[in-house]
Amino acid sequence: MHIKLGAVEMGVLEGKVAFISGGARGMGRSHAVRLAQEGADIITFDICEQLDTVAYAGATDDDLAQTVKDVEALDRRIVANKTDVRDRAAVQAVFDAGVEEFGRIDIVLAHAGIMPIIGEKAVGIQAWHDCIDIMLTGVLHTCEAAIPRLIEQGEGGSIVITSSVLGLKSIVRVLEMKNYGSLGYHAAKHGVVGLMRSYANSLGPYGIRCNTVHPTGVNTPMLANPEFALLCEEQPSVPEGLHNTLPVPLIEAVDVSNAIVYLCSDAGRYVNGITMPVDAGATAY
What we know:
The protein is of the alpha/beta class. It has helices at residues 26-37, 61-72, 88-102, 125-153, 180-203, 226-234, 237-241, 253-264; strands spanning 2-5, 8-11, 17-21, 41-46, 78-82, 107-110, 157-162, 208-215, 275-278. It is 41% helix and 16% strand. The two termini are 31 Å apart.
């Protein structure tokens, strides 16, 4: 998606700056790279630590370093820090450092997320708190760090919050799937829709748009791991709940990134307050 100006190809996000939470790997990295391909500079952060409630391996410092390499390989600039999205002051510090470096902000992608729904780690109440703290309060922290600057600039902007098909429906269909992790995941992913609509209404007069994206299962380390595969074997209701009507078991991270490019570009300039499924038809029935 490029525009030709004479002999020069310009990305549709040329000159823009994006603030992305959870950028170390998976969809977060894909979003950083895809937006950089379209000309954006990147401010990103990730916790890069293993959480006790998460059964699969978490992102690492090396993962975040790879995101930096991938963005810089596109001749774009990036500021990346190891930061916990649950820490409001730390998130603000990352944002402020990035804006000091690049001078502006145009795009906010509140993406950081976990899925503590597997095994014994999902049973304790901490799994609920981690879901809400990271994927609901953490979204608030990410957006609130940037919103005052977006308003001050007076040039509009785009906020995209990562929800899930589980923000539109539930895969908790049998009692065995009901644990604090699965309940917290669904609650957080539904909760950000209300947050998005509040932002869409209140920020719309300033030209700042806010939308959610709702992916089906994505081929990233959150799902493509032995622990999740075992869960699907033990609990068939999980893959049934994520069933796609199109003949693909998992979509790719770039499929979600492409939707986000649309929402953040001038092509989506009048799209505000929507829940956009990128789900291979998983919510079609």
